[in-house]
Amino acid sequence: MTNMNVKAIALRARQAAPTLGLLSTERKNAALEAMAEAVLKNKTLILSANQKDLRSARQKGLAASLIKRLELNDAKLRGIADSILLIAKLDDPVGRVIQTVSRPNGLVIQKVRVPIGVILIIYESRPNVTADCMALCLKSGNSVILKGGSESLHSNAALYRVMRAAAVSHGVPEGALELVMSTDRAAVKTLLGLSDLIDLVIPRGGEGLIREVARISKIPVIKHTKGICHVYVDKDADLAKSEAIVVNAKAQNPAVCNAMETLLVHESVAKAFLPRAAAALRDKGVELRGCEKTRAIVPGVQKASTKDWTTEYLDLILSIRVVKNFEEAVQHIETYGSRHSDAIVTENKQAAEAFTRAVDSACVFVNASTRFADGGEFGMGAEMGISTDRLHARGPMGLEELTSYKYVVLGSGQVRK
């Protein structure tokens, strides 16, 4: 794909943005419902395309975790459709008055939500991202340019074509939903230089992809580099509750960014908790790596290195550290964490409150699994990604995070003196 073709895609998205931003909520919701219906009606076509990607992935020897992300089936397509329908039911953020201030001179100043404009999504592996991003951007009034990875090329194209056709048939401007089919990395570099046409970039994928996008982009980027998520079992934790949370946070789906990568355990409960937790984790196939105190309590645990504390395994591997106290747990998270999602398990209200204040992560949990750090679980229908940045958006990015705001000032002839 030439630079001219890539720029033409971005130009179509830019030209469609004003019209899309003015669509009524009813028109957008009707389009979303049609898109969900199109996914289910065309499941044979979509699953056939997905099989092409899966065959190619296996031939290339891609990791099992990546193949799992890539795979679609009837249940996943039903989930995609349900997610789109939920987005249709959510309140439309566009045009919502956030705040109204009346000034002494009679001016009424309203802070109103507006679309960001044109959003570029660069992502890997998961075809469901294609559907989620199309639906979220449509509902929030933003044109979207999708650039998926080569491993999901056929799946992305099939989903895109049926959903776009459904949206356009319900009055969505054609350029509002764009897909870049090229696998040439030069196409990405060109897109990331089009700051006059694209307002925001959201990369979704591995740490390498995200860092590279942030490095070369001329456009603002919202990102998370990796998910080094922790669960801290406090001295006042309920151990049965802790075991359930720990096993879920690590093993329910280890290949995602909100899975726990490091378990921290207060030394006063380590001897009672670690053997039972280790047994439950090993039953799920988890490989354990631990500090010397952990290894003294649980036989057969591999020695953890400093590198383990900073590794996002995305696999059935867990690093474990026994800490002296609450402060050491928080310091470990501050030193090695990625500010994504961290949890404390405790029955001590003061410890829980202190943890939520001290831990500077996008999502901080008390007595719950880090696996809940997800737009769908937060009631957003779906998410554009999970931001570990501090500016504009943080945590799961839903409809509101895909809007900005402007000030509408209502007067009756006032002039400034």
Can you tell me about this structure?
By secondary structure, the chain is α/β, with parallel strands linked by helices. It is built from 15 helices and 16 strands. The chain has 2 domains: 3-222 and 397-410, Aldehyde Dehydrogenase, Chain A, domain 1; 229-372, Aldehyde Dehydrogenase, Chain A, domain 2 (3-Layer(aba) Sandwich). It is 44% helix and 19% strand. The strands form 4 sheets. The chain has a 7-stranded parallel beta sheet with strand order 10-9-11-8-7-12-13, with helices on both faces. It starts with a helix and ends in a 7-residue tail after the last strand.
Topology record:
Layout: H1 3-21, H2 25-41, H3 43-59, H4 64-70, H5 74-89, E1 97-102, E2 108-115, E3 118-123, H6 128-139, E4 143-147, H7 153-168, E5 177-179, H8 185-191, E6 200-204, H9 207-216, E7 229-233, H10 239-251, E8 260-266, H11 267-283, E9 287-290, H12 292-297, E10 302-303, H13 306-309, E11 317-323, H14 326-336, E12 341-345, H15 349-358, E13 363-366, E14 386-387, E15 395-396, E16 403-410
Parallel strand pairs: 3-4, 3-6, 4-5, 7-8, 7-12, 8-11, 9-10, 9-11, 12-13
Antiparallel strand pairs: 1-2, 2-16, 14-15
